[in-house]
Amino acid sequence: MPTPDVEYICSDCGAKNDIKPSEPIRCKDCGHRIMYKKQDADESTSESTDPAASEGSEG
Ligand SMILES: [Zn+2]
């Protein structure tokens, strides 16, 4: 694969899009233009306990 498609995550709906470097960045689900590259690195990195954010997650 000379031009591997890059995984992009839509900033609007959060859908995953496999977009090639030559193709324009656009969500195929909702058509949003703002997308960010999927970061597969630092996946298992444990989050450090921050004393400031001691509030439990509601939900
Ligand atoms: Zn979208």
Stated plainly, the CATH topology of the domain at 6-37 is called Rubrerythrin, domain 2
Percentage beta strand: 15-25%
Silhouette? elongated
Low-confidence stretches: none
From the alpha-carbon coordinates, what is the Rg to the nearest angstrom? 16 Å
Total beta strands: 3
Query: What do the pLDDT scores average to?
Result: 81
SS-derived structural category: mainly beta
Number of helices: 0
User: What is the CA-CA span between the terminal residues?
Assistant: 43 Å
Helix content: under 10%
Distinct ligands, ions and cofactors found in the model: zinc ion
CATH top level of the domain at 6-37 is Mainly Beta
| Secondary-structure arrangement, i.e. CATH architecture of the domain at 6-37 | Single Sheet
**Order of adjacent strands in the largest pleated sheet:** 2-1-3
Largest sheet: 3 strands, antiparallel
- Looking at this structure, what is the CATH superfamily of the domain at 6-37? RNA polymerase ii, chain L
In N-to-C order, the SSE pattern is EEE
